[in-house]
Design a protein that fits this description.
By secondary structure, the protein is mostly helical. The chain contains 11 helices and no strands. The chain is elongated, with a radius of gyration of 30 Å.
Amino acid sequence: MNPPPPPTADHDDQVTAQALREQYESGSTVDQLVASSGLSYGTVLNRLREARTVMRTSWQTRRMRDGQARRNLAARLRRLYDEQGATLAELAVAGSVTRRAARRLLIEAGGTPRTTQQTLRIRSAADAARRKKLALSLRARYEAGATVPDLAKECSYSIGTVYRLLHLAGTRMRPKHHHGPARSPRKRS
């Protein structure tokens, strides 16, 4: 009896690299993709590489497929996303997953993906609050007698930045002093 014929080229074309990538990123292993597609292990790997798929380690796959671990990861990523204004790329790094998987986990945890503009607004608001707090701290030290160059050196900022922060805090500036040797008053003739 003859063995069954190998899959035709038409069958190979039906299993696109993008379809394999989507299945892989949703948690399927390479072995499962081989079994479901009928392609060889090497062909599946080549197609995944062709689709620029970020490959997982075995422990990442286990963690992703374990229900409770997946829910915990999704919740942690959502907290980062909501509370710290993290981007999807930052979530992917924090969770050791792809951006697409991070987005999927965020949605599973009940989060709503933001637009780039929304993320920038969140970050700028957080930066403004941090900057205002620093400005008030510098103001208190300036009013206690510290000089602008001393404050700049302590904070590792330029003198100009310290002046801007003091201005932001509404600091009343001291008059400038002439540094160096005292000048003798001019005599009028």
